[in-house]
């Protein structure tokens, strides 16, 4: 099952939105565009991004795993730099809620 994120507003006014499918498509397109510059020819059957294909599903999952890691890192940084400040603690919690 493909998962997407809906826009979310949190009480500190932050808005995060991660659409894993769109991000995976952007990564795929960038990869396809850069591959020839590195002497690499991509497979013909994966030149167009298809979120329903095994390749597309894998790319979406890779994006999900990496965005969750980035979000967790950002939440930890908020906590480390904010100390006991309620706003930064709320920010860290809001960031963690974006993880899927």
In brief, what are we looking at here?
With 100 residues, the protein is mainly alpha-helical. It contains three helices and two strands; from the N terminus they run E-E-H-H-H.
Protein described:
The chain is mainly alpha-helical. It has one domain (8-97). The protein is 56% helix and 4% strand. The protein contains 3 helices and 2 strands; from the N terminus they run E-E-H-H-H. The protein has helices spanning 20-34, 54-82, 86-97, and strands at residues 8-9, 15-16. Strand 1 and strand 2 (15-16) form a beta hairpin. Helix 1 packs across helix 2 and helix 2 (54-82) runs antiparallel to helix 3. The protein is elongated. Mean pLDDT is 80; it is low at 5-15.
Give me some keywords for this one.
two-stranded antiparallel sheet; 100 residues; 56% helix; 3 helices; mainly alpha
Helix-residue proportion: 55-70%
Which percent band covers the strand fraction? under 5%
**Sheet with the most strands?**
2 strands, antiparallel
Given helix and strand content, the structural type is mainly alpha
Low-confidence stretches: 5-15
Mean pLDDT: 80
| Overall radius of gyration | 17 Å
Compute the number of structural domains. 1
**N-C termini distance:** 13 Å
Reading the helices and strands in chain order gives EEHHH
